[in-house]
Automatic annotation (TrEMBL):
It comes from Antrihabitans stalactiti. PANTHER family: GLUCONEOGENESIS FACTOR-RELATED (PTHR30135:SF3), UNCHARACTERIZED PROTEIN YVCK-RELATED (PTHR30135). Its main location: cytoplasm. Keywords: Cytoplasm. It is found in: Cytoplasm. This is Putative gluconeogenesis factor.
């Protein structure tokens, strides 16, 4: 599968379709990709590869492949919109029922595992399945090997000052204690070369939302990936979760999420932090959040980005905020905290997609 180019490296040419790179995993990344595809067809997903539960964990253990579940979900988020692509989207997301050996496996997980064995390369497998699903953009693993997450967790011993080391993404995500710090095993894993190239040629890089310790922070723990995120000329946007997650970030404020990210990647800076306006009330909590954002070099953008009555991001509303950030960048707007962000992306719709329309725009640089 050939990815729609934004210009070959070194040639100095770029497409008039802005390139968005989204990093994360699971349902959080699905939300970001669903928003990004409304703005451009040049979308690249860079996905965590530390899942050790369910179908992904079984395939990882039995076949030695990188866990395919989050990669499959990213493909589904970017799949084409015609009837044929819709059939494939539903098929790869289908999970076998029953009690036999296939029970609980997703069809897409099995296809990706099989393609990886046949082609000998997980990126080639993703590209091939993406071609069949008519994916707009590309889905890449953050590393070409499966990784493990290890965490220091407080609150599991009688003495609350004592940390216990627990290992595995599922264990970290569901711990009843409070996660203090996470590490990757191996500690210095290689980054996917294609992911590094995508970040280098991006116009906007979006990190989050998602499980903070197991889907978001792991990206800045891969040294080559962190270097690419630090040096890219892209506009860097951090999207905060709508609420703390039971177990992993129970009791965390929005401000605490930023402090934890800074602790794990001291040199990492972003331009914008997107926060749902309803999740952080006016007053001292917003002031604390703004101060924490300034340490990341960022402005805070409060906006309505939620699906009413749910803890999920609304794709259209999030797309509107990302479009506003791009417009401000093009217009040279000052990087000041914004408390009122319009969530309509009319007038800044990019690419030619069925049902979207709108004119294309020049690069955001």
């Amino acid at each position: 599968m050939s990815f729609p180019s934004t210009g070959e490296p070194g040639e100095g040419t770029r497409s008039d379709r802005p390139a968005i790179v989204a990093l994360g995993g699971g349902h959080g990344l699905y939300a970001t990709l669903s928003a990004a595809r409304r703005l451009t067809t040049a979308v690249t997903a860079i996905v965590t590869v530390a899942d050790d539960g369910g179908s992904s964990g079984r395939l990882r253990s039995e076949l030695g492949v990188i866990p395919p579940g989050d990669l499959r979900m990213a493909l589904a988020a970017l799949a084409g919109t015609d009837v044929g692509a819709e059939v494939w989207r539903n098929t790869v997301q289908h999970r076998f029922r029953g009690t036999g050996a296939l029970a609980g496996h997703s069809v897409g997980n099995l296809i990706l595992a099989g393609l990886t064995e046949v082609l000998g390369d997980p990126v080639a497998a993703l590209d091939e399945l993406g071609r069949v699903m008519k994916v707009d953009g590309r889905v890449l693993p953050m590393a070409p090997i499966a990784l493990a997450i290890e965490a220091d967790v407080a609150g599991l011993e009688a003495d609350p000052r004592v940390n216990r080391c627990i290992r595995g993404q599922v264990a970290v995500a569901t711990t009843p204690g409070q996660v203090r710090r996470v590490r990757l095993i191996p500690s210095d894993p290689p980054a996917c070369p294609e992911a590094l190239d995508a970040i280098d040629h991006a116009d906007m890089v979006v990190l989050g939302p998602g499980s903070w310790f197991s889907s978001v922070i792991p990206h800045v723990l891969v040294p080559e990936l962190l270097d690419a995120l630090i040096t890219t000329r892209a506009r860097k946007v951090l999207v905060l979760n709508l609420a703390a997650q039971p177990g992993e970030t129970a009791g965390f404020s929005a401000e605490r999420h930023l402090h934890v990210l800074s602790q794990h990647a001291p040199g990492f800076k972003v331009h914008d932090v997107v926060v749902d306006a309803e999740s952080v009330p006016e007053g001292r909590e917003r002031d604390h959040l703004r101060r924490a954002a300034r340490k990341l070099g960022a402005q805070v953008r409060f906006a309505d980005v939620s699906e009413p009555g749910t803890p999920k991001h609304h794709a259209g509303k999030l797309a509107g905020v990302l479009a506003q950030i791009a417009r401000d960048r093009e217009g040279g707007a000052d990087d000041t905290t914004t408390d009122d962000v319009r969530t309509s992306y009319d007038g800044w719709q990019l690419g030619v997609r069925p049902g979207i329309g709108g004119k294309e725009s020049a690069s955001w640089r």
